[in-house]
Structure formats: structure tokens, C-alpha cells
Design a protein that fits this description.
The complex is a heterodimer.
Chain A: H1 3-15, H2 31-43, H3 59-78, H4 90-97, E1 117-122, E2 125-131, E3 137-143, E4 147-154, H5 156-160, E5 164-167, E6 181-186, E7 192-197, E8 202-205, E9 212-216, H6 219-228, E10 230-235, E11 241-247, H7 255-260, E12 264-270, E13 280-285, E14 292-296, E15 302-305, E16 312-316, E17 330-335, E18 341-347, H8 350-354
Antiparallel strand pairs in A: 1-2, 2-3, 3-4, 5-6, 6-9, 7-8, 7-10, 10-11, 12-13, 13-16, 14-15, 14-17, 17-18
Chain B: H1 2-27, H2 30-46, H3 55-75, H4 80-87, E1 91-92, H5 98-111, H6 114-124, H7 130-137, H8 141-170, H9 176-182
Classes of the chains: A alpha+beta, B mainly alpha.
Chain lengths: ~350, ~180
């Protein structure tokens, strides 16, 4: 990295401004703006500001508050089993109600904040939830050290397509030692839930009310969880796995980490002059045990692509093949040493995906 | 009293509507931008007494949340094809001129974490100060500074890479991969 390029970066971002040099001034006094202004002013009177609570938080007070929270959390931990179903504190209700704050009626979720209760706990972490009218829910994780971590809402329709919902709140800056809490809801009829880490270590997770859970990753597993992520597995009463969801590795601002998490990462090489063409493909095969990689064209013919020692690959398509993926996807298939298929990924032109796949 | 409030709000609208509309236009299509402007100022009218003296960043923060909420509603159920489309990368085969550099920068911006990308755009596109950008993004100035630092560093790497590729192209090489392998 050079100083020149670093200082030039902001200027380059400026040059990507979609509005370019076109002026945006003057709209505010246009007839269209007038109509909008009248409509807003006639829609409803502003809400008078409620008396605000002053939230003075000097450092000393914060230290005391954290200490008190820790003591309370320790005390509460002993009787936590009795707390599931107890009302959420006012601060949590406030946060849950906040999901609709300032939103027009048609955008509101209207969680039943007054009925919000504690649904799950783990160590110093608590999860409170409030129901939505449609069968969905909003919840908030609260930890002793970080406090409330923000409300999350899921409509019923969305819950139905997530067997295990995972929310991982974090606070910048994240390091390998930053604690990890996950919470959410198991949306299948599970009897138990567990965490499985990359090294094979497993840990049971206590299911709370209505399928909610919250889980603090132990200190011993935090680093591994940041680097490799971990799985949550829901089991039935017989111990059979019903569903698995992955808590992804922490993205330390490294987009490549996401790429590496895919069994086969595919990047198509295109020219901006014609997005229907695929000039080549490159990426990496990340699934364990891959020995052979094969590109299968939409017409069924296949070509073998060498995998480099670091798992990466690069293949330039023959000139006569650059149009093959314009409207029909092909596939990349990875095989193990015995010829068994172990991963596959679609390959298609940018135009194909932009058309909605 | 109410007339006075309406006049004050109209003043606020006239002063900031262009900026809010510009913010929305840069991040959505014109039709959606108009909706975002309308929702933003509707919220502003309802919460008129909450608006700080320096209203611009506050309004952009509302616009950002309105936009985010609309996107979230639309994308709650993300189809496989959508995820794949996001994953596909547009990679110029050989970068040779300013247009290609712009495309390269745009592609690099898309790969940044959303908060870093937005921090850079607020500074570069909206011309906000660090403090104002922090208000829009609802974070501290220090956090914003870290995000901007990381984002600029990543972009600078892209620019350096572009310069290297351009140089290689001018020497008659075939492209990125081939050049790397030859070395």
C-alpha cells in the first residue's frame, strides 16, 4: 500500500458517486416537493416531546453499574430457573418497542411489548422476547458486561424457513478474545440443542421457553469460534439431528473469509462490455478431501480443472465456450480420491444472475 | 403555535430535502428515492421536537434506517439465486484505463462491510465530516474513524493492485493470473 494510493482512495470513491456532477439542488422548491410537504403537514400533527430521562454516564458510574450488574447476574444465576417467564425489565421493553419508533403505520411490527418476558438464559446472558400478531417474535439479548444488545424481529413467515435462527450481537472492535453470545429460536420441534466446534468439542445449550435459547461460548472455545465459526444442532428426543445452523466465523473485515467458508468458491471473469460472457472462472476448493475438480457445461460436456496445492484454481474458457453460460448455468463439481462427488457449485454469467437466476 | 411549528418544519424541509433526496438517489432508484424522502420527512414531522439543531446528519440517519428497513422487508427471505448473485464477482480481465479503475473501485466498495462502505460514501459522496457521518451511522467518532481507516486501507490495496496490473498490461502481459504465474 502506498501513501499516494491511500490518500487518493477518498477521491476515487467520490468519482463513483452515481449522481456524478449532476446537481441535486432545487428539488426542494419544486412543485413536487411542495405537494409532498403539504401531504406531510396535513397527515398528522407532530408528537410532543415527552420529558426525557437524562442518562448521565460518567466513567465512574459505568464502572459501578457494571460491578452491580455482575453481582446481580451472579445472584440471579442461582435462581435463574425461576425467572423464565418473568416480565422483561423496562429497558428491554423500551428497546423492543423501539423497533417501530418513528416508523409509519404500514412498516410497524407492533410487538406485544407489555407481555415481553424472559425466555432463556445462559451464564450472564438473558434473552427476552415479545410476540408479534402474526406468530412471529422480537427478542433482545442482554449481557452483564455489554448490556442490551439490540432488538431483533422475525415475522412468522420468515421463522418458518429458518429451522434454527441465530443472532450474534457484537460490539466493535472485535478481537479473537471478544466474548461470543448467540441467541435466537429453534423453529422445529426439538428436544435439545447443542453447539459443535471445529475441533469436535460439543457443548449442550439449554432450551428456554418457546424454543428460545441464548448461549455464551466458553472462554476455551472463543478463539476457535471466531476463526472457524461453529454449528448449532437441534436434536429430537432420540438424539437424532433435526437441523443444523452455522454461526459463521467472525468477519474481521476480511471478505475472503466468507469465500473460504464456501465448499467451492467461484468467481467468474467477465468483461464489463458484455455480461453474458464468461471468459474464465477462478476461486478455491475449500471442502476437505477434494482431489479433482470438473466444470460441467450446460450441454453436459465436462472438462477437468487442475486444483493447485493451496486449493485455488483458474480456468480460461475456450473462445467458443464463453457464451455457454449466458442463460443456462453449468456446474463445478469436486470429487474425492474415490471419485465420490463431495461438493458442487453453480457457474453462470453475471447477466444470468442479474436476471434473477 | 401550530402555525409556527409548521413554518419551522417547512424551513427544515426546504433546507435539507435536496440532501436527503440526493442520499436516497445514490442508493436506490428514483421511484424508491421519492418514497424514502417522503417517509423520512414524515418521521421528522412526527418527531419534530427530537430533531437536533444540526438536523442534516439526523435526517440522513433516519433516511438510512428507512432505506435499510425497506431492504430488510424485501430481502427477508433470501433466495439461493440472490445469494449466488451477490457472491458472483465482476472482475475486469485487464484493467487499462480510468474507466476500469472506477469499475475496480466500485467492485472493491461492494466487497467492503456495509458499515465501512457507508462511512466512506458519507464522507465522499455526501461531503459530511467525520462527526456528522458518525451521527448518521449511529456510532462514535472513534468507531467511525476505525471504519474509515480500514476501508481506505483496503481500497488503497486495490488501487495499488490496479496500478500493478496496468503496468503489466502495458508491458504486454495477458492479465492478472498469468502475470503472477510468470513471476
Amino acid at each position: 500500500m502506498t501513501d499516494r494510493s491511500k490518500s487518493a482512495s477518498l477521491e476515487l470513491v467520490r468519482e463513483t458517486d452515481p449522481l456524478g456532477g449532476s446537481s441535486i439542488a432545487g428539488w426542494s422548491i419544486s412543485p413536487e416537493a411542495d405537494r409532498l410537504l403539504r401531504r406531510i403537514l396535513d397527515s398528522v400533527e407532530p408528537v410532543d416531546a415527552a420529558p426525557r430521562q437524562h442518562r448521565v454516564r460518567p466513567r465512574a458510574l459505568r464502572v459501578v453499574a457494571i460491578a452491580v450488574a455482575l453481582i446481580l447476574a451472579a445472584a440471579l444465576g442461582a435462581v435463574a430457573g425461576e425467572l423464565v417467564g418473568s416480565p422483561a425489565p423496562a429497558s428491554v421493553k423500551h428497546d423492543l418497542a423501539g423497533v417501530d419508533q418513528g416508523m409509519p403505520q404500514d412498516l410497524r411490527l407492533n410487538p406485544d411489548v407489555e407481555s415481553a418476558v424472559l425466555a432463556a438464559y445462559s451464564g450472564n446472558a438473558r434473552l427476552y422476547y415479545a410476540a408479534l400478531n402474526d406468530g412471529g417474535y422480537c427478542f433482545e439479548i442482554v449481557t452483564a458486561t455489554e448490556g442490551a444488545r439490540g432488538a431483533v424481529c422475525t415475522r412468522a413467515a420468515d421463522a418458518r424457513v429458518q429451522a434454527i435462527e441465530i443472532t450474534m450481537p457484537f460490539t466493535d472492535p472485535v478481537t479473537l478474545r471478544s466474548p461470543i453470545e448467540v441467541g435466537g429460536r429453534v423453529n422445529v420441534a426439538a428436544a435439545s440443542l447443542g453447539a459443535r466446534f471445529a475441533d469436535g468439542h460439543t457443548s449442550p445449550i439449554q432450551l428456554g421457553a418457546n424454543g428460545f435459547y441464548v448461549y455464551e461460548v466458553s472462554r476455551a472455545q472463543v478463539k476457535s469460534a471466531h476463526i472457524d465459526g461453529f454449528d448449532l444442532i437441534a436434536y429430537d428426543a432420540a438424539g437424532t439431528s433435526l437441523a443444523t445452523a452455522t454461526a459463521p466465523p467472525t468477519d474481521f473485515n476480511d471478505p475472503a473469509a466468507m469465500d473460504r467458508a464456501m465448499p467451492i468458491f467461484v468467481s467468474t471473469i467477465s468483461t464489463h462490455e458484455d455480461f453474458t460472457k464468461v471468459l474464465g472462472i477462478e476461486g478455491s476448493v475449500n471442502v476437505d478431501g477434494a482431489r479433482r475438480l470438473e466444470l460441467r457445461y450446460p450441454d453436459g460436456t465436462a472438462v477437468r480443472i487442475p486444483i493447485r496445492s493451496d486449493g485455488s484454481y483458474h480456468y480460461d474458457l475456450p473462445v467458443g465456450r464463453v457464451d455457454d453460460f449466458a442463460s443456462i448455468p453449468g456446474e463445478l463439481l469436486a470429487y474425492d480420491a474415490h471419485g465420490n462427488e463431495i461438493a458442487r457449485a453453480p457457474v453462470a454469467s453475471v447477466a444470468y444472475w442479474h436476471a434473477g437466476g | 403555535m401550530h402555525d409556527e411549528r409548521r413554518m419551522r418544519f417547512e424551513g427544515l424541509f426546504r433546507s435539507h430535502a435536496d440532501a436527503v433526496r440526493g442520499y436516497a438517489l445514490r442508493r436506490s432508484d428514483p421511484h424508491e428515492a421519492d418514497d424514502i424522502v417522503a417517509e423520512t420527512f414524515l418521521i421528522a414531522w412526527r418527531r419534530f421536537d427530537d430533531i437536533p439543531v444540526n438536523a442534516g446528519p439526523w435526517l440522513l440517519g433516519v433516511a438510512r434506517r428507512v432505506l435499510s428497513n425497506r431492504r430488510r422487508s424485501a430481502l427477508r427471505i433470501v433466495s439461493l439465486s440472490d445469494r449466488l448473485a451477490d457472491r458472483e464477482r465482476i472482475k475486469p480481465s485487464i484493467a487499462t484505463d480510468d474507466t476500469d479503475l472506477r469499475l475496480t473501485v466500485e467492485a472493491a466498495l461492494e466487497r467492503l462491510p456495509e458499515k465501512e462502505r457507508e462511512a466512506l460514501r458519507l464522507l465522499a459522496w455526501e461531503g459530511l465530516s467525520t462527526a456528522e457521518s458518525a451521527v448518521v451511522l449511529g456510532c462514535t467518532r472513534a468507531t467511525l474513524a476505525v471504519r474509515v481507516h480500514r476501508a481506505r486501507r483496503r481500497l488503497a490495496d486495490v488501487i495499488d493492485g490496479h496500478a500493478a496490473r496496468t503496468e503489466a498490461t502495458e508491458r504486454g502481459s495477458w492479465g492478472i493470473t498469468e502475470t503472477a504465474e510468470e513471476r
